[in-house]
Design brief:
Largest sheet: 3 strands, antiparallel
Structural class: mainly alpha
Shape: elongated
Helix content: 55-70%
């Protein structure tokens, strides 16, 4: 037995997960990504909000992801060979995006990014 969900229903289920902090825009972008994954792979997915919460995280910007992932501005700057000013201004965003895409999934949307665990 199965129920086919719309994009908005998937996003709503993601938003209702009290242990996740998805924005509406982030939840919708992730729902669209999951639907596209299904289409591209010809494989139906089961909606498991716990697994999704564990596999993906939302950030306001690539810089926010880098600072959290590498454990601080200094370490992020060392990783991307940039100054704190360059990191905070977004000048290192292309390097950060490339790093994420080389190691996992990057979902960009108006208002932030979603990154898969890697």
């Amino acid at each position: 037995m199965k129920i086919t969900l719309t994009t908005n229903q998937i996003a709503d289920y993601l938003k209702r997960d009290d242990n996740a902090a998805w924005s509406w825009a982030g939840a919708k972008a992730l729902a669209e990504y999951l639907e596209q994954y299904e289409q591209d792979n010809g494989e139906e997915l089961e909606l498991d909000v716990v697994a999704i919460r564990c596999d993906f995280s939302e950030y306001a910007s690539p810089q926010d992801w880098a600072v959290e992932y590498f454990g601080g501005i200094e370490k992020a700057c060392a990783e991307f060979d940039c100054t704190a000013d360059e990191l905070e201004s977004g000048d290192a965003d292309d390097k950060i995006r490339e790093h994420i895409q080389d190691n996992g999934q990057l979902i960009e949307f108006s208002g932030g990014i979603i990154v898969s665990s890697f």
